[in-house]
Write a structure and sequence with these properties.
The protein is α+β, with helices and mostly antiparallel strands. Helices cover 60% and strands 7% of the residues. A 5-stranded antiparallel β-sheet has the order 1-2-3-5-4, with no helix packed on it. Helix 1 crosses helix 3 and helix 2 runs antiparallel to helix 3. The longest helix has 33 residues.
Length: 316
């Protein structure tokens, strides 16, 4: 996969080194340090591409942004460090105290920028290491839910088989469903105080797994029904309502920008403005459909009350 790098100002980095340290500057070291952090993130993206291909696009965009912002940070950092010398280098005579104070304040801001970038890098790594929520608007949502359900059912079958093996043999050694590492982990868990049942997987674990399977299956069935029904559109005297089944969003389209009072009603009922789609929308659910009814009632009440000076409410 192609990696995107920005330019680090080596001359500024060299100056920053010379006025703050007696050590020589190693040519290209600033760029090398920058690329070290960027390459670490792109290595994570490579793993995401292999293990979670549906998240590759998102991961690439995040990695490209991280690379760009990290370059901005380093260039700002070296520019700040080059703005005032260390007192150990220049000596105390005529030392620019105010300039140093300004530099130190800037250092505090740059430290916050660094912490943000490391947090952002952690979000990219999170895509790989943690299970991601499956959003209904994701074009692969049905496939992802099917895969999740298959894995949940497989895990449930494994848990039951392991319990049956232990019940028969009173040991986990040689259990065909477990790897040696999994066997050792379960043995340690069974030795803990909280493990109050004489079986590897306790009753509540199986019960919770069953509940997760039922909920996932129900959500999958409902999502399939919504997707199969296709996008629908309806109009009333206030707006056009679109049930967008591709994005799984309930969208309200007005003729022009609604008045502030109307926008407040929309926000109160969970609708947010989407510049990308040019509409007010929220996730498509039963509650969203109910909220549309409340919006219409509120607009009808406004219109009847004649809150505007000319006796008519401009809702579009």
């Amino acid at each position: 996969m192609e990696r995107t790098y920005d330019t680090i100002n080596e001359q500024t980095a060299r100056t920053a080194k010379h006025i703050n340290s007696f050590d020589d500057y190693a040519a290209g070291s600033a760029t090398a340090e920058y690329k070290k952090y960027v390459d670490r993130i792109y290595a994570v993206v490579d793993q995401i591409k292999e293990r979670k291909p549906h998240l590759t696009g998102k991961a690439v965009k995040m990695a490209d942004r991280y690379s760009r912002k990290l370059a901005e940070y380093y260039n700002n950092y070296y520019r700040n460090e080059a703005s005032c010398p260390s007192v150990m280098i220049s000596g105390p005579a005529n030392f620019p105290v105010r300039k140093k104070e300004k530099q130190n304040r800037r250092r505090e801001k740059l430290m916050k920028d660094w912490e943000y970038l490391q947090s952002y890098a952690g979000k990219i790594e999170y895509l790989l290491t943690m299970e991601q929520p499956i959003l209904s608007g994701d074009e692969n949502a049905v496939m992802l839910l099917e895969e999740k359900l298959k894995k949940l059912e497989s895990d449930q079958a494994m848990m039951k088989a392991v319990n049956a093996y232990y019940r028969k043999n009173q040991t986990l050694e040689g259990c065909p469903e477990l790897t040696p590492e999994q066997t050792e982990t379960l043995k340690k868990e069974m030795g803990c105080d909280f493990h109050y049942e004489n079986k590897p997987f306790m009753t509540y674990q199986l019960t919770n797994q069953n509940a997760t399977i039922r909920n996932t299956r129900f959500r999958l069935e409902q999502l399939k029904k919504e997707k199969d029904a296709g996008t629908t559109e309806r109009e009333n005297c206030f707006f056009q309502m679109v049930e967008n089944k591709e994005l799984m969003r309930l969208q309200l389209i007005f003729d022009g920008k609604p008045e502030p009072e109307v926008r407040e009603i929309l926000k109160t009922n969970g609708f947010k403005w989407s510049p990308k789609n040019g509409c007010w929308q929220r996730q498509l659910t039963g509650n969203a459909r109910y909220a549309v009814g409340r919006v219409i009632q509120a607009l009808e009440k406004m219109e009847a009350a004649g809150t505007e000076a000319d006796g008519a409410v401009n809702i579009s």
